[in-house]
Amino acid sequence: MNTETDSRPRAYPRGRTGHIPGEAELWIFIMGDLTVFGIFFAIWGWNYTQNPGMFELGRSTMSQPIGLAETLTLISSSAAVVAALNSARWKETRRAFRLYLAAIGFGAVFVVLKIVEYSRHLHEASNPALGEFFMYYFVFTGIHLLHVLVGILGLSIATRSMRPDSRGASVAFLEGVGVYWHMVDVLWVVLFSLIYLI
């Protein structure tokens, strides 16, 4: 272990308790976002109970391997963000830089997989028997994809702040980016379960 690096002061000492990551305003936004997606999930569930046959038919057209790959890329990206934030707290900026780049890479793979998946389903969406299923699918996953793109932008800013020629970023900002990215991850896990599995 590199004692020179590890002996540097942490942004938050081990003894500190009660710390809420990020800024208070971010949590207001996240709670609002979670409420909106909660409504989305309720709409999906309600319509499923009204027309389960259509939703089962729509689910049969979904590729579980692609959905699983998308899930694993976001989980891997979240793990990289956790490690990057920890490195940033220890002021290991080079390692944090590489980990944020890895998180962005995993996020980009998710975007590519989603575009591939969309292209597969565009012609199926014109089927009257599946129209309502794919309307919800494209709207809900499209809004989530927009969140992914915003998250990648935030991760890009965090990555840039780790460069030697940068003035750096506050730990609160890096925490906020991490919390937002974990929210995106959790929302996708729920969407994956609803659309591909349940």
Automatic annotation (TrEMBL):
Single GO cellular component term: plasma membrane
Molecular function terms, GO-annotated: cytochrome-c oxidase activity
Heme-copper oxidase subunit III family profile domain location: 26-198
Transmembrane segment boundaries: 26-46, 66-85, 97-116, 136-158, 179-197
PROSITE patterns in alphabetical order: COX3
UniProt subcellular location: Cell membrane; Membrane
Xref: SUPFAM superfamilies: Cytochrome c oxidase subunit III-like
Annotated catalysed reactions: 4 Fe(II)-[cytochrome c] + O2 + 8 H(+)(in) = 4 Fe(III)-[cytochrome c] + 2 H2O + 4 H(+)(out)
Family in the record: Belongs to the cytochrome c oxidase subunit 3 family.
Protein name, UniProt field: Probable cytochrome c oxidase subunit 3
Species name: Mycobacteroides immunogenum
